[in-house]
Structure formats: structure tokens, C-alpha cells
Amino acid sequence: MHEMKGFRVVITGKGGVGKTTLTSCLARLLGRRGIRVLAADEDPQMNLPHALGLPPEQALAIVPLSRNPDYIAEKTGARPGKSFGALFRLNPDVSDVVGRFGVRIDDRLSLLVMGTVVQAAAGCLCSENVLLDSVLNYLALRDEEAILLDTQAGVEHFGRALAKGFSQCLVVSDLSFNALAVACHAADLARQLGIGRIHLVVNRYREDAGDKLQRFREATGQDTQRLFDVIHTLPGEARFEDLEPDVTRILDQESAYVSGLNRLVEDLLAFEGRRRERSAAALEEEGKE
Ligand SMILES: Nc1ncnc2c1ncn2[C@@H]1O[C@H](COP(=O)(O)OP(=O)(O)O)[C@@H](O)[C@H]1O
Ligand SMILES: [Mg+2]
User: Fold this and answer.
1) Is there an atom of ligand 1 within 6 Å of 12 CB?
2) Contact between residue 114 and residue 135 where contact means Cβ atoms under 8 Å apart
3) Is the CB of 234 within 6 Å of ligand 1?
4) Which residues are registered as beta bridge partners of 168?
5) Using one digit for the tens of pLDDT, what is the confidence trace for 268-286?
6) Ligand 1 within 6 A of CB of 244
7) What is the pLDDT of residues 6-36, one digit of tens each?
8) Which end of the chain is more exposed for a tag (fewer CB within 10 A), N or C?
9) What is the pTM of this model?
């Protein structure tokens, strides 16, 4: 596991199900294993900086890329809001983005606050979205670290970049009907994009989960067992209330939640190991021909 190079994971699911909490804890756990991590926040609530324990005054001072008109104009050639009829540079070089806007949390962990996609009229191209798309495309190619993308917009907004570089998708849900419905939809889309491993993370798991999932299956015809490659469970954890917003302190003490997280990390890394072996084998085959 020491030779682990980069890999990219997108975290999605309905609002409030525990995505940001999970993303920040995973970022820390991967860091503890010696893996460099870039946590990217695409959630409009922008609470990943807080969850990662950044001091509030520092967290509140962060301007997301989507609200940085100077950077957007520099890269795309068009100012947000003034771009009607303008000509964009559609694939601007944004390889300076982490250097300029990345926030260093510790030796192994950095944060990039992207901001969210603009909900535009159908077919409208906004310079903000062109920029975010380019940043995601760029991240999809970065190979020296693990990238965790915390997103609420849903995977459909980012088709190309996710399909290119993101090998795994963590779909987070609680046991509520609505969250499960969003999760199943996300799994479908992630599958269509060709993402290699799609996890369901049932957060706030309870004893009656089996009944709930069965009722959901009967009502919707959606079968979580079939839609997801693997199902993980994380129990409710009362301590979060006291730890907020710096929730990764949950990791300082053993608990069922932390054991569940560690199993999830093992699974993520094991899949990356297999993926690497497969691509090495494919390269060798090519060499023989
Ligand atoms: N397993 C859990 N048990 C109890 N509370 C949780 C758990 N996971 C997350 N929370 C709490 O739920 C709330 C929403 O979590 P958050 O990670 O911000 O969700 P999201 O990013 O999906 O909107 C937060 O107050 C968080 O502390
Ligand atoms: Mg969130």
C-alpha cells in the first residue's frame, strides 16, 4: 500500500445524509496511511473547510472558485454575468488552480473549494460552469494524490471529467425513502459514466435497516443490492453533535463508526490495487503484441 499513487473518488447523495462528514474523515484516514489527499468541495453549503478543522475565520475567508470573477475571466476570457454572446476559451489551462487556491490543512492534506455549478437555463453556457468543468477535467488527470470530491450537485453535471478520471463513487444515504431514491438515481448515472466501483454507504444505519430497504424495494422496484457493487454501513454517532464543526476528531477514539470507516478505506484501496494490477497487465499484453 506504500506505493499507492493517486486515485479519485466522488462522494454524492442527498443533502444532510453525511457526505461532508464522511469526506473529511476519509481524507484524514487516508492521510494517516501516508497518502496525500486533495479534498475538493463542490457542495454549495461549503462546510468541508469547517469539517476538516480549519479555524472558522480562515474557513469563512475562503472564496470558492465559482465566485472568483477575476480567475474566471482570466481563464475563460468571459466575466460571470457578462458572458452572454461572449466567446469562451472552452478548455483553459487551469493547472495553476491548486497552487493558487488550494488551502494546506497539514502535510498530507489540502483543500480546494470549488463552489457549485450554476443552475442555468437549458443549453446556457456560463463562464462559471466552464471554469468548474475545466478544473474537474484537470483534477481528473492529477495522479500524485488521492482526490475526494464532495458534491451535492449530483454526478450528471460532470459527465466527462468524472468518466475520465474518477474510478469510484461513494453514494451516501440514510434510510429515508427520499435519500434512497436519490442514491439509486446517482448509482444509475455513475454506472452510465462507467465509474468502476459504486458504493452505497448507509449512514445512521439502524437495526431495522433490512425492513426499510425491503419496503423501499417493494415500493420502487429499485434493488440496492443490484444497483451497487458493495454496501457499507455506518452507525449513528451521537458524539458528532459535540464535536461539530470539527468532526474528524471522531477519529481520536475507537467506535463502531470509525471501524466502519476503516473498512470502507480498506475497500477503496483494495479496489485501486486491483485496478492498478489490471492496467499493468494490460500494458504488458500490449507490449507483447
Ligand atoms: N453517522 C452519523 N451519526 C449522527 N450524526 C451524523 C452522522 N453523520 C453525519 N451526521 C451529522 O449530520 C449532519 C449532516 O451531515 P453532513 O456531513 O454535513 O451532510 P451532507 O454533507 O450530506 O449535507 C451533520 O450535523 C453531521 O454532524
Ligand atoms: Mg455537505
Assistant:
1) no
2) yes
3) yes
4) 9, 197
5) 999 999 999 998 899 888 8
6) yes
7) 899 999 999 999 999 999 999 999 999 999 9
8) C
9) 0.94
